[in-house]
Amino acid sequence: EWGVTRLTFEYDSEPFGKERDAAIMKMAKEAGVEVVTENSHTLYDLDKIIELNGQKPPLTYKRFQAIISRMELPKKPVGSVTSQQMEGCRAEIQENHDETYGVPSLEELGFPTEGLGPAVWQGGETEALARLDKHLERKAWVANYERPRMNANSLLASPTGLSPYLRFGCLSCRLFYYRLWDLYKKVFDELLLDADFSVNAGSWMWLSCSAFFQQFFHCYCPVGFGRRTDPSGDYIRRYLPKLKGFPSRYIYEPWNAPESIQKAAKCIIGVDYPRPIVNHAETSRLNIERMKQIYQQLSRYRGLCLLASVPSCMEDLSNPVAEPSSSQAGSMSSAGPRPLPSGPASPKRKLGAAEEPPGEELSKRARVAGLPPSELPSKDV
User: Fold this and answer.
1) Which residues are in the Photolyase/cryptochrome alpha/beta domain (predicted)?
2) Annotated binding site
C-alpha cells in the first residue's frame, strides 16, 4: 500500500527485541524490502563483546575492560539534523498525515486513562537535553563529580535523573559520554521508571548472590533500611497512601503500632493492610545459613574459591530491629527456608576450624558491619 522499499531501525540486544526483530526481518525479506539496522543505543556492540570473549559474556568488570580495549573507540555523536540537510527531501503531506503516522494515544494502545493524573516525568529528547544542560551548568558539581550517593527513597531524581532518557534512547549515550565523561525482576521491570532488561537482571543477580556474585551475607532489613534512608517516611506516605496516617515511629512497622494509633490512621493491620509475610530477623538468618552451606558444597565439587564463612546479616548488625511480641510473632509466617541437613553430604562437619575467616576477611566484615572485629558474632549464629 505504501510502496516501502527499505526499512531501518535501531538494533535491540534484549531477548524480546531479538525475537521481534527476527520476525520483522523475515517478513521484510519475503516482501523484498531491504532492512538496515544500526547499533547506537550502547557505546559498544554487545554481541561483538561476547564474540571476542569466546561466545560468552564477560563476568567481571575487569574482563569487560580488557575486551573493549581491543575494540574501536565509540564514535563521536553526530550533530542535529538541519533544515539544509533535509532540503532534498520532498514528500506530499496528506490531510490525514497525523492520524496515519502520528504517535498512538494511550487509549489506542488499550490503556485506561480515566482518572489518570498528569505525568510526573516529562519524556522526550528535548527534556533529556534540558536536564543534561542544567546539570552541566553546575560547574562545582562537574568539577567534583564522584560516584553518587544514591538515596533509594528520594522523591526527586537523584543524582541526575537521566537514566530513563538513556534507557529509552531519548538521550544519546554518545552525547552523554562525550559531554560528561525472575519474579522480583519482573516487578522492577513493571514499576521502575528506568527499568532496563540487562541492568535489572544483573542487579538482581548481584543482590541475590546468583551466578558469578559471591557475597551472600548482605541481607536488607526492610525496616532498618527504610529508617536509615528516609527516617520521616515521606517515600512510604507518597507511594503507599494507606500508611500515610501513621506517625514516623511506626511507618515502617505499622503492625507494632497500638490499636488506638491504627484506628487514628484509619488503617487496621490485618484488615486494611496485610501483616508481615515472614519474621525478617529469623528468615534472613536461615536464608544466609542455607546460602552458606550451598556455597560450601559448590566449592567442594567445583574447586571454586567462594566466600562461604560469613554467617550473619550485616543489615541486622547495623540496624537491629526489636523482635516482635509473642502475639505479633504468631501473625507472621514461619515458613521460611529450613537449613540444609548437616549429614554426610554437608561439608559443615569437615571444615571445622578452617571456616574461620582470615584476618583480612575479618577486618573487611567488621568495616561492613561497623563493629570492632572482636564484637562480630560467631559463625554459628
Assistant:
1) 1-43
2) 194-196
